[in-house]
Each structure stands twice: as C-alpha cells, then as structure tokens.
Amino acid sequence: MSSAAPSPPATVSGASYAVAPVTMAHYKAADSKREQFRRYLEKSGVLDTLTKVLVALYEEPEKPTSALDFLKHHLGAATPENPEIELLRLELAEMKEKYEATIEENKKLKAKLAQYEPPQEEKRAE
Hints:
Blueprint: E1 10-12, E2 15-17, H1 24-43, H2 46-59, H3 67-76, H4 83-116, H5 120-125
Antiparallel strand pairs: 1-2
Helix pairs in contact: 2-3
C-alpha cells in the first residue's frame, strides 16, 4: 500500500484553500447518517404523510395557485391534536348538550304556559 501524499493547497484567484482528502470512510459516514435519518422519517410516518399529500396535489384537477399553501393546509390536518383544542371540543360538546336541554325545557314551559293563557289569536280579537 502506498501512502497518499497530502494535497498541496489549491489557489483560486490569488486565494489559497486547503483541499481535504476525501476518503471512502467519509462517504460511508454521511450515507450512514442519511440512512438513519431516512429510517427515522419512515418510522415516524413523515414519508408516508408527505407522499400522500404530494399525491393529492398531483391528482388535484385544478392546481392551486400556491402549492406551499396546499401542503400547509393538508399537513395541518394531519398533525396531532393540541390538548387545548381537545379541551375546547369537550367544552363545546357540553355546551351543545346544555343548549339542547334548555330548548327542551323552553318547549315544556311554553306548553305549560299555553294551558293558562288564551291563544295569541284570541288576545288580538279582544
């Protein structure tokens, strides 16, 4: 095996830069990190989600004026729920139940009141 002599500094328009020797180990380390990152994205569902959104954009008959806004909108729908949003949804459901109960109570009270008062038409005739 012959040992490689260090590269002389390269000059560009009067400036000199040291050229680092590139080895296969350097490429393998970079590829390894890329592969680890790709596996991470795949396991976490990022690649699948991005693929689905990009396919939806591709299949969109009327292409949006801003592809970035399309991606943001469709990715926003896929994000996990914020705990505050979940609390607001629960509160909204409770309020809807209370509203429905109030409407029912109102109907019952109107019916009860109608028993004790003459109909509106008779009042107008008087």
